[in-house]
Amino acid sequence: MNAELEAEIQQKYTTETILDMRRWTDKLISFRLTRPAGFRFAAGQFARLGLPLANGGQVWRAYSMCSAVYDEHLEFYSIVVEAGQFSPLLAKLAPGGQVMLDKKALGFFQEDRLPAGRDLWLLATGTGIAPYLSILRQPDAWQRFERIILSHCVRDAAELSFQREIAELREHPLWREHGHKLHYLPVVTRDAPADMLDARYPQLLADGRLARRAGVEMSLEHSRFMLCGNPQMVEDTHRQLMKMGYRMTRQNAPGHIVLENGW
User: Fold this and answer.
1) How far is CA 26 from the centre of its chain?
2) CA 209, CA 149: separation in Å to the nearest integer?
3) pTM: predicted TM-score of the whole model, two decimal places
4) Where is the FAD-binding FR-type domain (predicted)?
5) CA distance 68 to 85
6) Are 76 and 135 in contact (CB under 8 A)?
7) Mean pLDDT of the region 53-58
């Protein structure tokens, strides 16, 4: 690589330092990076992170921000894929390690793309909960909706990360008066604890269990949905919602659903 090309590539990213690394399970980690002064993002967006390879190359992956738009750090949530190129390298790092950060945040997975409604349903699988943590760390959604249902679907109960942080959201001083609006619905699909929802979202939507557990009746008039997680969940859940009459939000045609694939 010639010096001119290398300089051009470097202008597109900064090198940031890991401030904290939390290991939720042997396959799930969250970490905080220093935040460059000029980095801006909207809640729900993602950033491209890079690591150097032993052969002199680089590997890049997209991660949604968990942190608030006003935080001085950037926080991310990752699954460690054993055969992956990026996440095993990331999992070996500790505070003080360095990660490359693309200077421009990307994506259109934002709550304000939905028209106003009564109920906001935030449906996530796995690490797809990340953008919702960022969205719920700003006042907008709390003010626009009467009820916010955050549901996190995982395979094993040990993967229900960020429960303390979710509980603390209700007490944040910027929207404490709206804190009662948040309903947290964990879903575990394998060996679920007693009295916990234990099926995939399409089934829970089709048989009405998700709505009953939330105590919230779904309707075309009042319900708005955000979907984030593995592509199969997003596709299947989107298809089920369409069977129920809900439609995607488009630029010139407001609907009921916005979606993002977690990987």
Assistant:
1) 20
2) 14
3) 0.94
4) 11-112
5) 28
6) no
7) 92
